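To the wet lab folks,

You asked to see what we're planning to order before we commit. Fair enough. Below is the target structure as C-alpha coordinates, and below that is the sequence we designed to fit it. If anything looks off to you, flag it before the synthesis order goes out.
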Protein backbone atom coordinates (compact mmCIF):
# COMPACT_ATOMS: atom_id res chain seq x y z
CA UNK A 1 0.00 0.00 0.00
CA UNK A 2 1.39 3.35 -1.07
CA UNK A 3 0.39 5.26 2.08
CA UNK A 4 2.14 2.89 4.49
CA UNK A 5 5.03 4.27 6.52
CA UNK A 6 7.47 3.03 9.15
CA UNK A 7 6.66 3.31 12.85
CA UNK A 8 8.41 2.21 16.03
CA UNK A 9 6.60 0.87 19.10
CA UNK A 10 8.59 1.16 22.34
CA UNK A 11 8.20 -1.44 25.07
CA UNK A 12 9.78 -2.86 28.24
CA UNK A 13 12.75 -5.22 28.20
CA UNK A 14 11.61 -8.80 27.60
CA UNK A 15 8.30 -7.84 25.97
CA UNK A 16 9.62 -7.44 22.41
CA UNK A 17 8.32 -10.84 21.25
CA UNK A 18 4.89 -10.24 22.83
CA UNK A 19 4.64 -6.84 21.14
CA UNK A 20 5.66 -8.15 17.71
CA UNK A 21 2.99 -10.88 18.03
CA UNK A 22 0.39 -8.26 18.99
CA UNK A 23 1.39 -6.12 15.99
CA UNK A 24 1.15 -9.06 13.58
CA UNK A 25 -2.27 -10.00 14.98
CA UNK A 26 -3.45 -6.42 14.41
CA UNK A 27 -2.24 -6.53 10.81
CA UNK A 28 1.12 -4.73 10.79
CA UNK A 29 3.63 -5.47 8.02
CA UNK A 30 7.47 -5.68 8.10
CA UNK A 31 7.54 -6.30 11.86
CA UNK A 32 11.14 -6.27 13.17
CA UNK A 33 12.10 -6.76 16.84
CA UNK A 34 14.76 -4.52 18.39
CA UNK A 35 15.82 -3.99 22.00
CA UNK A 36 12.89 -2.49 23.94
CA UNK A 37 11.24 -1.66 20.63
CA UNK A 38 9.60 -3.18 17.56
CA UNK A 39 9.49 -1.44 14.18
CA UNK A 40 6.64 -2.04 11.73
CA UNK A 41 4.75 -0.53 8.83
CA UNK A 42 1.15 0.58 8.45
CA UNK A 43 -1.01 3.54 7.42
CA UNK A 44 -2.58 6.33 9.51
CA UNK A 45 -5.55 4.12 10.44
CA UNK A 46 -3.18 1.43 11.65
CA UNK A 47 -1.31 4.01 13.76
CA UNK A 48 -4.63 4.89 15.44
CA UNK A 49 -5.41 1.19 15.96
CA UNK A 50 -1.94 0.44 17.39
CA UNK A 51 -2.30 3.21 20.01
CA UNK A 52 -5.80 2.08 20.90
CA UNK A 53 -5.27 -1.70 21.04
CA UNK A 54 -1.67 -2.61 21.88
CA UNK A 55 -1.28 -3.89 25.44
CA UNK A 56 2.52 -4.06 25.65
CA UNK A 57 3.51 -0.79 23.88
CA UNK A 58 4.59 2.31 25.80
CA UNK A 59 4.70 4.67 22.81
CA UNK A 60 4.21 4.64 19.06
CA UNK A 61 6.52 7.02 17.22
CA UNK A 62 6.62 7.93 13.52
CA UNK A 63 10.16 8.55 12.17
CA UNK A 64 10.20 11.51 9.75
CA UNK A 65 13.92 12.13 9.16
CA UNK A 66 17.32 10.64 9.97
CA UNK A 67 20.83 11.93 9.35
CA UNK A 68 24.42 11.64 10.57
CA UNK A 69 25.45 14.38 12.95
CA UNK A 70 28.97 15.54 13.98
CA UNK A 71 28.36 18.13 16.69
CA UNK A 72 25.83 20.65 18.07
CA UNK A 73 26.28 23.06 15.14
CA UNK A 74 25.70 20.25 12.66
CA UNK A 75 22.58 19.16 14.57
CA UNK A 76 21.24 22.73 14.56
CA UNK A 77 21.86 23.11 10.78
CA UNK A 78 20.14 19.83 9.87
CA UNK A 79 17.10 20.41 12.11
CA UNK A 80 16.84 23.97 10.72
CA UNK A 81 16.91 22.60 7.14
CA UNK A 82 13.79 20.47 7.69
CA UNK A 83 10.38 21.74 6.54
CA UNK A 84 8.60 22.03 9.89
CA UNK A 85 5.47 23.65 8.38
CA UNK A 86 4.39 20.17 7.29
CA UNK A 87 3.85 19.23 10.96
CA UNK A 88 3.50 22.47 12.89
CA UNK A 89 2.05 25.98 12.51
CA UNK A 90 3.17 29.13 14.33
CA UNK A 91 -0.02 29.17 16.40
CA UNK A 92 0.62 25.65 17.76
CA UNK A 93 2.82 24.47 20.61
CA UNK A 94 5.51 21.79 20.64
CA UNK A 95 7.75 19.85 23.01
CA UNK A 96 10.90 17.80 22.51
CA UNK A 97 11.88 14.49 24.15
CA UNK A 98 15.49 13.46 23.65
CA UNK A 99 17.40 10.23 24.21
CA UNK A 100 21.17 10.23 23.66
CA UNK A 101 23.66 7.39 23.57
CA UNK A 102 26.74 9.01 22.12
CA UNK A 103 30.24 10.25 22.99
CA UNK A 104 29.67 13.55 21.15
CA UNK A 105 26.28 14.24 22.72
CA UNK A 106 26.13 13.55 26.43
CA UNK A 107 23.32 15.84 27.63
CA UNK A 108 19.83 15.16 26.36
CA UNK A 109 18.57 18.52 27.69
CA UNK A 110 21.20 20.37 25.69
CA UNK A 111 20.21 18.47 22.52
CA UNK A 112 16.54 19.33 23.18
CA UNK A 113 17.52 23.00 23.58
CA UNK A 114 19.51 23.06 20.32
CA UNK A 115 16.63 21.35 18.46
CA UNK A 116 14.12 23.83 19.87
CA UNK A 117 16.35 26.77 18.84
CA UNK A 118 16.64 25.44 15.28
CA UNK A 119 12.84 24.99 14.90
CA UNK A 120 12.01 28.36 16.47
CA UNK A 121 14.65 30.21 14.38
CA UNK A 122 13.40 28.59 11.17
CA UNK A 123 9.83 29.80 11.81
CA UNK A 124 11.02 33.25 12.88
CA UNK A 125 13.16 33.61 9.74
CA UNK A 126 10.37 32.53 7.38
CA UNK A 127 7.21 33.79 9.16
CA UNK A 128 8.50 36.55 11.41
CA UNK A 129 6.93 34.78 14.40
CA UNK A 130 7.38 31.46 16.21
CA UNK A 131 5.48 28.58 17.86
CA UNK A 132 5.70 28.27 21.64
CA UNK A 133 6.97 25.37 23.72
CA UNK A 134 4.50 23.58 26.01
CA UNK A 135 6.07 20.65 27.81
CA UNK A 136 2.85 19.45 29.47
CA UNK A 137 0.27 19.35 26.68
CA UNK A 138 1.81 20.31 23.33
CA UNK A 139 0.11 20.13 19.93
CA UNK A 140 3.16 18.28 18.61
CA UNK A 141 5.61 16.12 20.56
CA UNK A 142 8.92 15.60 18.76
CA UNK A 143 11.22 12.71 19.59
CA UNK A 144 15.00 13.02 19.04
CA UNK A 145 17.13 9.88 19.34
CA UNK A 146 20.91 10.09 18.91
CA UNK A 147 22.92 6.88 18.85
CA UNK A 148 26.65 7.51 18.23
CA UNK A 149 26.47 9.81 15.17
CA UNK A 150 23.03 8.78 13.92
CA UNK A 151 20.15 11.14 14.68
CA UNK A 152 16.53 10.04 14.24
CA UNK A 153 13.74 12.61 14.32
CA UNK A 154 10.25 11.22 14.99
CA UNK A 155 6.79 12.41 15.88
CA UNK A 156 5.27 10.94 19.04
CA UNK A 157 1.77 9.73 18.11
CA UNK A 158 0.86 8.61 21.65
CA UNK A 159 1.54 11.59 23.91
CA UNK A 160 1.88 10.53 27.51
CA UNK A 161 2.93 6.91 28.00
CA UNK A 162 0.44 4.26 26.89
CA UNK A 163 0.64 2.58 30.30
CA UNK A 164 -1.62 5.42 31.48
CA UNK A 165 -4.78 3.66 30.39
CA UNK A 166 -7.14 6.17 31.98
CA UNK A 167 -8.99 3.88 34.41
CA UNK A 168 -6.64 4.11 37.37
CA UNK A 169 -7.31 7.13 39.56
CA UNK A 170 -6.55 5.51 42.92
CA UNK A 171 -3.24 3.75 43.57
CA UNK A 172 -1.55 2.12 46.52
CA UNK A 173 2.10 2.46 47.64
CA UNK A 174 3.81 1.02 44.55
CA UNK A 175 1.29 0.11 41.90
CA UNK A 176 2.38 -2.14 39.06
CA UNK A 177 2.56 -0.36 35.71
CA UNK A 178 -0.36 -1.34 33.41
CA UNK A 179 1.90 -2.32 30.49
CA UNK A 180 4.02 -4.45 32.83
CA UNK A 181 0.88 -6.12 34.28
CA UNK A 182 -0.47 -6.85 30.81
CA UNK A 183 2.85 -8.23 29.58
CA UNK A 184 3.22 -10.49 32.64
CA UNK A 185 -0.30 -11.83 32.07
CA UNK A 186 0.44 -12.54 28.40
CA UNK A 187 3.79 -14.18 29.30
CA UNK A 188 1.89 -16.36 31.80
CA UNK A 189 -0.35 -17.56 28.96
CA UNK A 190 -3.52 -15.95 30.34
CA UNK A 191 -6.22 -16.13 27.66
CA UNK A 192 -9.48 -15.93 29.61
CA UNK A 193 -10.29 -19.63 29.36
CA UNK A 194 -10.58 -20.35 33.12
CA UNK A 195 -11.00 -18.60 36.48
CA UNK A 196 -8.39 -15.99 37.41
CA UNK A 197 -7.11 -14.77 40.76
CA UNK A 198 -4.79 -12.08 42.11
CA UNK A 199 -4.45 -12.83 45.85
CA UNK A 200 -2.54 -9.60 46.64
CA UNK A 201 -4.33 -7.25 44.29
CA UNK A 202 -3.23 -3.81 45.54
CA UNK A 203 -4.97 -1.21 43.39
CA UNK A 204 -6.42 -3.83 41.02
CA UNK A 205 -4.25 -3.33 37.94
CA UNK A 206 -3.59 -7.04 37.33
CA UNK A 207 -7.31 -7.81 37.71
CA UNK A 208 -8.33 -5.05 35.30
CA UNK A 209 -5.77 -6.00 32.66
CA UNK A 210 -6.75 -9.68 33.04
CA UNK A 211 -10.41 -8.81 32.36
CA UNK A 212 -9.50 -6.67 29.35
CA UNK A 213 -7.46 -9.52 27.87
CA UNK A 214 -10.22 -12.06 28.61
CA UNK A 215 -12.89 -9.88 26.94
CA UNK A 216 -10.56 -8.62 24.16
CA UNK A 217 -11.29 -5.02 25.14
CA UNK A 218 -8.91 -2.47 23.52
CA UNK A 219 -6.21 -1.65 26.10
CA UNK A 220 -6.55 2.13 25.83
CA UNK A 221 -10.30 2.53 25.35
CA UNK A 222 -10.52 4.53 28.62
CA UNK A 223 -7.80 7.05 27.75
CA UNK A 224 -8.71 10.71 27.37
CA UNK A 225 -6.80 10.99 24.12
CA UNK A 226 -3.69 10.49 22.01
CA UNK A 227 -1.18 12.96 20.57
CA UNK A 228 -2.15 12.12 16.97
CA UNK A 229 -5.60 13.69 17.57
CA UNK A 230 -3.88 17.11 17.48
CA UNK A 231 -2.00 16.44 14.24
CA UNK A 232 -2.93 18.51 11.18
CA UNK A 233 -3.82 15.37 9.16
CA UNK A 234 -5.96 13.74 11.90
CA UNK A 235 -9.00 11.97 10.42
CA UNK A 236 -11.64 11.93 13.19
CA UNK A 237 -14.11 9.90 11.12
CA UNK A 238 -11.54 7.18 10.43
CA UNK A 239 -10.57 7.09 14.11
CA UNK A 240 -14.23 6.63 15.14
CA UNK A 241 -14.55 3.73 12.67
CA UNK A 242 -11.47 2.09 14.18
CA UNK A 243 -12.83 2.49 17.72
CA UNK A 244 -16.18 0.97 16.64
CA UNK A 245 -14.64 -1.98 14.82
CA UNK A 246 -12.26 -2.69 17.76
CA UNK A 247 -15.21 -2.70 20.19
CA UNK A 248 -17.10 -5.12 17.93
CA UNK A 249 -14.28 -7.64 18.44
CA UNK A 250 -14.85 -7.88 22.21
CA UNK A 251 -15.98 -11.28 23.49
CA UNK A 252 -17.98 -12.60 26.42
CA UNK A 253 -16.19 -14.05 29.43
CA UNK A 254 -17.81 -16.93 31.35
CA UNK A 255 -15.43 -17.43 34.27
CA UNK A 256 -14.58 -15.59 37.48
CA UNK A 257 -11.93 -12.97 38.17
CA UNK A 258 -11.23 -12.69 41.89
CA UNK A 259 -9.00 -10.32 43.84
CA UNK A 260 -8.00 -10.44 47.51
CA UNK A 261 -6.16 -7.90 49.61
CA UNK A 262 -5.97 -7.68 53.37
CA UNK A 263 -5.85 -3.86 53.40
CA UNK A 264 -9.33 -2.26 53.31
CA UNK A 265 -7.88 0.80 51.52
CA UNK A 266 -6.50 -1.43 48.72
CA UNK A 267 -9.87 -3.16 48.31
CA UNK A 268 -11.59 0.22 47.95
CA UNK A 269 -9.01 1.49 45.46
CA UNK A 270 -9.30 -1.69 43.40
CA UNK A 271 -13.06 -1.42 43.28
CA UNK A 272 -12.89 2.25 42.20
CA UNK A 273 -10.42 1.53 39.41
CA UNK A 274 -12.36 -1.52 38.20
CA UNK A 275 -15.54 0.57 38.12
CA UNK A 276 -13.73 3.29 36.14
CA UNK A 277 -12.80 0.63 33.58
CA UNK A 278 -16.48 -0.53 33.43
CA UNK A 279 -15.41 -4.06 34.39
CA UNK A 280 -17.14 -4.51 37.76
CA UNK A 281 -19.52 -7.14 36.32
CA UNK A 282 -16.52 -9.44 35.70
CA UNK A 283 -14.38 -8.85 38.80
CA UNK A 284 -15.00 -9.31 42.52
CA UNK A 285 -12.59 -7.98 45.14
CA UNK A 286 -12.71 -9.12 48.75
CA UNK A 287 -10.82 -8.19 51.87
CA UNK A 288 -8.96 -11.39 52.70
CA UNK A 289 -5.52 -12.44 53.88
CA UNK A 290 -4.32 -14.86 51.19
CA UNK A 291 -2.45 -16.94 53.78
CA UNK A 292 -5.77 -17.79 55.44
CA UNK A 293 -7.58 -18.79 52.23
CA UNK A 294 -8.03 -21.83 50.04
CA UNK A 295 -9.29 -22.36 46.52
CA UNK A 296 -13.02 -21.64 46.21
CA UNK A 297 -13.50 -22.44 42.51
CA UNK A 298 -13.86 -25.63 40.46
CA UNK A 299 -11.49 -26.53 37.61
CA UNK A 300 -8.21 -24.88 36.76
CA UNK A 301 -7.34 -21.58 38.42
CA UNK A 302 -4.88 -19.15 36.79
CA UNK A 303 -3.16 -17.02 39.42
CA UNK A 304 -0.88 -14.07 38.66
CA UNK A 305 0.31 -11.57 41.25
CA UNK A 306 2.96 -9.08 42.31
CA UNK A 307 3.80 -9.79 45.98
CA UNK A 308 5.02 -6.86 48.07
CA UNK A 309 8.80 -6.64 48.14
CA UNK A 310 11.36 -5.20 50.55
CA UNK A 311 11.75 -1.96 48.61
CA UNK A 312 8.22 -0.90 49.37
CA UNK A 313 6.99 -2.83 52.41
CA UNK A 314 8.60 -3.83 55.65
CA UNK A 315 7.96 -7.58 55.71
CA UNK A 316 9.84 -10.58 57.04
CA UNK A 317 11.03 -11.94 53.70
CA UNK A 318 11.79 -15.53 54.65
CA UNK A 319 8.46 -16.10 56.46
CA UNK A 320 6.50 -14.25 53.79
CA UNK A 321 7.80 -16.30 50.84
CA UNK A 322 7.58 -19.57 52.71
CA UNK A 323 3.93 -18.71 53.55
CA UNK A 324 3.26 -18.20 49.81
CA UNK A 325 4.62 -21.71 49.12
CA UNK A 326 2.67 -23.30 52.02
CA UNK A 327 -0.61 -21.63 51.06
CA UNK A 328 -0.30 -22.73 47.43
CA UNK A 329 0.68 -26.28 48.41
CA UNK A 330 -2.06 -26.76 51.01
CA UNK A 331 -4.92 -24.68 49.68
CA UNK A 332 -4.68 -24.33 45.91
CA UNK A 333 -4.71 -27.64 44.01
CA UNK A 334 -5.32 -27.37 40.26
CA UNK A 335 -3.71 -23.93 40.13
CA UNK A 336 -1.11 -22.42 37.80
CA UNK A 337 0.41 -19.81 40.09
CA UNK A 338 2.60 -17.11 38.59
CA UNK A 339 4.19 -14.24 40.45
CA UNK A 340 6.85 -11.64 39.80
CA UNK A 341 9.60 -10.72 42.24
CA UNK A 342 12.77 -8.62 42.22
CA UNK A 343 13.93 -10.35 45.42
CA UNK A 344 15.68 -13.27 43.72
CA UNK A 345 17.19 -14.81 46.91
CA UNK A 346 13.70 -14.93 48.47
CA UNK A 347 12.54 -17.48 45.88
CA UNK A 348 14.39 -20.29 47.65
CA UNK A 349 12.10 -19.81 50.69
CA UNK A 350 8.97 -20.66 48.64
CA UNK A 351 9.90 -24.32 49.05
CA UNK A 352 8.48 -25.28 45.65
CA UNK A 353 10.30 -25.82 42.39
CA UNK A 354 9.22 -23.36 39.68
CA UNK A 355 8.40 -24.92 36.32
CA UNK A 356 9.20 -21.63 34.51
CA UNK A 357 11.42 -18.62 35.24
CA UNK A 358 11.29 -15.61 32.92
CA UNK A 359 13.62 -12.60 33.27
CA UNK A 360 11.76 -9.27 33.26
CA UNK A 361 12.28 -5.77 34.65
CA UNK A 362 9.94 -4.14 37.17
CA UNK A 363 10.80 -0.48 36.56
CA UNK A 364 14.64 -0.68 36.86
CA UNK A 365 14.73 -3.78 39.05
CA UNK A 366 15.76 -7.05 37.45
CA UNK A 367 13.01 -9.51 38.32
CA UNK A 368 11.75 -13.01 37.63
CA UNK A 369 8.28 -14.10 36.62
CA UNK A 370 8.01 -17.60 38.10
CA UNK A 371 5.43 -20.33 37.63
CA UNK A 372 4.44 -22.98 40.18
CA UNK A 373 2.13 -25.76 38.99
CA UNK A 374 -0.05 -27.00 41.82
CA UNK A 375 -1.51 -30.36 40.80
CA UNK A 376 -4.78 -31.92 41.92
CA UNK A 377 -3.39 -34.48 44.38
CA UNK A 378 0.34 -35.16 44.35
CA UNK A 379 2.57 -35.21 41.28
CA UNK A 380 3.35 -38.86 42.00
CA UNK A 381 -0.35 -39.80 42.12
CA UNK A 382 -0.91 -37.91 38.87
CA UNK A 383 1.87 -39.92 37.22
CA UNK A 384 0.52 -43.24 38.61
CA UNK A 385 -2.99 -42.48 37.35
CA UNK A 386 -1.59 -41.87 33.91
CA UNK A 387 0.36 -45.16 33.85
CA UNK A 388 -2.55 -47.22 35.15
CA UNK A 389 -4.93 -46.14 32.37
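Sequence we intend to order:
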Amino acid sequence: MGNNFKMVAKTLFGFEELLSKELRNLGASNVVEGVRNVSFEGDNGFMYKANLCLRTAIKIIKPIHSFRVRDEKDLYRKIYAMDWTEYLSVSETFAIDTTVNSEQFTHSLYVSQKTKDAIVDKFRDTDGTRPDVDVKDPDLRINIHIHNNECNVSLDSSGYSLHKRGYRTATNIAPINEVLASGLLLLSGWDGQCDFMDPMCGSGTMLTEAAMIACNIPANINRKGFAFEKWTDFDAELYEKIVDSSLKKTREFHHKIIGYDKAPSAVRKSQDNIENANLDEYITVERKDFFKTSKQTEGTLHMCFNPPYGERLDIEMENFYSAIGDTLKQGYPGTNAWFVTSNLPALKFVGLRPSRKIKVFNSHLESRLVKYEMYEGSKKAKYQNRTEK
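Structural context that might help your review: Residues 94 and 144 are 13 Å apart (CA to CA). The chain is about 30% helix and 25% strand.

Thanks,
Computational group
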